[in-house]
Amino acid sequence: MNAPNPAAITQDLLTVPRRLPDAARRNIVGLTRGQLYQALLDAGTPERQARMRVGQIWQWVYHWGVRDFAQMTNLAKDYRALLAESFEISVPEIVTRQVSADGTRKYLLRIAGGHEVETVYIPEESRGTLCISSQVGCTLTCSFCHTGTQKLVRNLTAAEIVGQVMVARDDLGEWPKPGAPKDETRLVSNVVLMGMGEPLYNFDNVRDAMKVVMDGEGISLSRRRITLSTSGIVPEIAKTAEEIGCLLAVSFHATTDEVRDRLVPVNKKWNIETLLNALREYPRLSNSERITFEYVMLDGVNDSDEDARRLVRLIRGIPAKVNLIPFNEWPGSPYRRSSWERIEAFADIVHKAGYASPIRTPRGEDIMAACGQLKSATERGRKSAAQIAAEARA
């Protein structure tokens, strides 16, 4: 019913980001402990003091959320002046903030070079999940994904990835207050790398950012609270297990190479069999519990009973759950959402085969914040779904 899309132009494994504007001062946000240590030495911190200074600055920035060196009161005034001269504490700027009827928040954020990305916060009864981006745009052109209609501009830096978490905590008022009673409530309790871009095409920056987010003396999210979603960049999957160790989700979406080539064109480079072979090793390498297979439900494309049975056969032997995602339509999209009856029938087959098969509740659709709807083009980013639809009909 849908003509196949042309093959995606996929990046080489190592990408070179566009040159960012030169900054007079170096941004501390996103530096790993080792990088911060070296930066402090380079700025004139005595070697015998540097490790202690790293710990002090780290706590101010990532535990207390402080952005001004002058507020770091356990540092000498002359040292605070040295820091202010050499460094800055900078996070992305909020351009727009939209709140859905269901409480979902979508932030349009401006980063270096005037580029914009989107970040989404999804509050739930027992947790709050922050969906963050790893690239400006995307290169994979998955045919069901609105973000994939925007060309790749550049990779995000580690600072811009960590900065999304910090901006959300700012907006939610989540930083602790010195002297206040300790509050264990975590509004941002989970992070998912499921926003704009393919995280594994920006591996080094994603890895460094997650080291900062997972550090126990700062933001302190455990690796089991972080999920990285990939379309299947096979050469980087083992590295993800070894160097990040977070939970893994895979944008699977099809049970034959013919259909997956159309939906997720990177499949032409690493097909289903190659991808599954890599995934079989991941839980062992990372000590993760199980892999999440993300499966968007497209009417008449990948939602038959035979697809469900074939999916079960394909993932046999992999500790896994299947997250079924009702397709989130966007203006001009070439697909329709499967009926609720069809989605439930598919879920039932997977569940009876012994796999958890939750159906994701669409969130933030009214502000174009649902899965697959993100797109950062400024004009589109500032319009509601109703406005965009009205323009498309005009």
From TrEMBL:
Lineage: Bacteria, Pseudomonadati, Pseudomonadota, Alphaproteobacteria, Rhodobacterales
Binding site for S-adenosyl-L-methionine: 197-198, 229, 251-253, 328
Enzyme class name: transferase
Gene: rlmN
Identification of the protein by name: Dual-specificity RNA methyltransferase RlmN
Enzyme nomenclature, EC number: 2.1.1.192
Cofactor(s) of this protein: [4Fe-4S] cluster
GO molecular function: 4 iron, 4 sulfur cluster binding; metal ion binding; rRNA (adenine(2503)-C2-)-methyltransferase activity; rRNA binding; tRNA (adenine(37)-C2)-methyltransferase activity; tRNA binding
Gene3D superfamilies the UniProt entry points to: 1.10.150.530, Aldolase class I
Active site: 118 (proton acceptor), 371 (s-methylcysteine intermediate)
